[in-house]
Structures are given as C-alpha cells and as structure tokens.
Specification:
By secondary structure, the chain is an all-alpha fold. The chain has a domain at 31-77. It contains two helices and no strands.
Length: 93
C-alpha cells in the first residue's frame, strides 16, 4: 500500500477565458442569425470560410444585444469585410 505524496506539485488554479463568458441567448434575440449561419454551414458542407458574412451578422447581433463584449470586427477576424472609408483625393482644377 503506497500513497502518493506530491509535496512539490503545484496546485491548479483555474482562470477565466481571455474573452470572458458568453451569456446564453435566453430570449432568442439572435436565433434567426444563428439559424441562417447554421443553414449556410450545412449547405456548404461545414466549410466555415464560405459563411463568413453570416457569422459576422450573428456576432454583430450578439454584441448589439450585450450578449458578448463589444469588439472591433477586425479583432474577430473580419478585417477584410469591414467598410473602410476611402481617403479623400484632392480634386484637380
């Protein structure tokens, strides 16, 4: 009969995820966006790159309704889909 004594073992301290917890959508405020995204995934054999617009709309819905922290879309992987304002060009006279 042997007992394991790990005097040098570090204790595990859980820490929250980097982005925090995401509240559930109890009132179904973003269900239509989620369903549109899931339909796109199924139609495209779960190739998520083909459903980026639907994913973006779903995340925007969650941010607008405070179901997740507001983040710039660029930080969520949508830099190529954000609207950039064109730089004003000087007019020739």
């Amino acid at each position: 009969m042997s007992t394991a004594m790990n005097f040098g073992a570090k204790s595990f301290k859980p820490r929250p995820p980097d982005k925090g917890a995401f509240p559930l959508d109890h009132f179904g405020e973003c269900t239509a966006f989620k369903e549109k995204f899931m339909q796109c995934l199924r139609a495209n054999h779960f190739e998520n790159a083909l459903c980026r617009e639907e994913s973006k709309e779903y995340l925007e819905c969650r941010m607008e309704r405070q179901l997740m922290a507001r983040e710039p879309l660029e930080k969520l992987g949508f830099k190529d889909q954000t609207e950039e304002k064109p730089a004003s060009q000087p007019q020739a006279l």
